[in-house]
Design the sequence.
């Protein structure tokens, strides 16, 4: 796969040339032309064009844990967020309910924000950069979310939605929960307030007279989200159709599968209905095309599913008893699959890494972090 080749080259280049300085330089946003101080691998990792174990292995093979602890922890944040949300799917459901309500009425200050027309200059710069490139530096994401919530007084849900649909690395867990973290809803009372000095210290462009609300108090909610254990499926291979998808693109290269038939599951129409940006849709389409070629080369199959009707037709033609997909986390793609489960027998195949790590995501990241040495010992040796 061409895109995988690109991702692996980028990973190798980053580990050899920039990883050593990651912990001291990672907080600086030097602008879109100078993005070497972080890996910019997120769009590949979100789609598992390269997966977390490959990223961890590649970095750990070159440096000691102590030297690259910060980078390893950042990769593990993604795993933590996914496990955390997986055990509290109601956070995602409530967020979507709120979005439906909020979108009934479009307010001018919301339109100004997404069209980069506010009176906060850096915010406008970030909004444009996000729409043009599909990426923002982590610090810019924190500043953006903070200004959105505390200075522009906009609902965090609308900001998270704007991010999810414009980021090439958009991920329901990392995105929703990071927005909640900035607002002060993840760790109750602990919020992130963007300050002028901090923006000017860490961003390339320097801004004057920013009128930010630097004394804002954390957002508050009364709902307490309970934790539910994740119910993993048992899969049987008999008369099965295995459908790979672009949220776990290298699943079949990394895991044993023994299905009778193989194909690709395409979620484009689901994401188009949710109004994902063209940029994001096109990136995902490129991955889908490569998955299509992979399935053709590896299994001589041309099965390509892009609707329920299409799936039902293939099931009938090939006498399929079970459809298996790489595990889909909380998100719009999973919402669609759950909605068709009454009509089609579908199970998820989970990676050992996910199953193992997610069990530790019951509380805060601090507790999760204590388990990282165990994770590395289990999966990197
Ligand atoms: C409001 C907000 C929204 C965000 N939305 C997303 C999102 O939708 N998708 C997403 O992948 N990340 C999201 N992040 C996390 C983070 O900003 C990006 O992962 C990171 O900026 C990607 O750049 P990079 O690949 O150079 O990261 P690096 O610093 O090189 O880190 C390596 C990898 O670790 C993971 N990672 C790093 N930091 C985090 C983090 N804080 N949380 C989760 N994973 C992390 C990513 O997979 C990243 O590619 C969000 C952060 C905030 C504050």
Sequence:
């Amino acid at each position: 796969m061409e895109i995988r080749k690109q991702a692996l080259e980028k990973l190798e280049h980053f580990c050899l040339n920039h990883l050593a300085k990651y912990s001291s330089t990672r907080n600086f946003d030097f602008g879109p032309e100078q993005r070497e101080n972080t890996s910019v691998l997120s769009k590949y990792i979100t789609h598992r064009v390269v997966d977390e174990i490959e990223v961890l292995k590649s970095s750990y093979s070159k440096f000691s844990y102590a030297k690259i602890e910060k980078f390893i922890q950042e990769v593990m944040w993604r795993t933590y967020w996914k496990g955390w949300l997986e055990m509290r799917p109601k956070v995602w459901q409530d967020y979507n309910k709120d979005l439906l309500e909020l979108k009934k009425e479009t307010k001018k200050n919301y339109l100004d924000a997404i069209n980069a027309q506010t009176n906060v200059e850096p915010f406008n710069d970030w909004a444009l950069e996000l729409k043009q490139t599909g990426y923002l530096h982590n610090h810019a994401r924190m500043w953006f979310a903070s200004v959105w919530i505390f200075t522009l007084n906009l609902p965090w849900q609308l900001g998270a939605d704007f991010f999810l649909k414009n980021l090439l690395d958009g991920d329901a867990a990392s995105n929703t929960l990071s927005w909640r973290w900035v607002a002060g809803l993840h760790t109750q009372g602990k919020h992130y307030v963007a300050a002028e000095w901090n923006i000017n210290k860490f961003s390339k462009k320097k801004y004057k007279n920013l009128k930010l609300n630097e004394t804002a108090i954390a957002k508050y909610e009364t709902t307490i989200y309970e934790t539910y254990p994740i119910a993993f499926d048992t899969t049987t291979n008999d008369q099965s159709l295995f459908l790979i998808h672009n949220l776990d693109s290298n699943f079949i290269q990394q895991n044993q599968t023994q299905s009778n038939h193989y194909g690709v599951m395409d979620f484009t129409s689901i994401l188009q209905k949710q109004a994902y940006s063209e940029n994001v849709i096109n990136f995902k389409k490129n991955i889908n095309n490569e998955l299509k070629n992979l399935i053709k080369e590896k299994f001589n199959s041309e099965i390509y599913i892009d609707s329920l009707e299409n799936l039902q037709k293939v099931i009938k033609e090939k006498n399929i008893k079970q459809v298996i997909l790489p595990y889909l986390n909380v998100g719009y793609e999973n919402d669609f699959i759950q909605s068709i489960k009454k009509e089609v027998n579908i199970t998820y195949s989970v990676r050992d890494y996910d199953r193992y790590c997610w069990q530790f995501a019951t509380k805060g990241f601090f507790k999760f972090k204590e388990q990282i040495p165990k994770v590395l010992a289990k999966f990197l040796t």
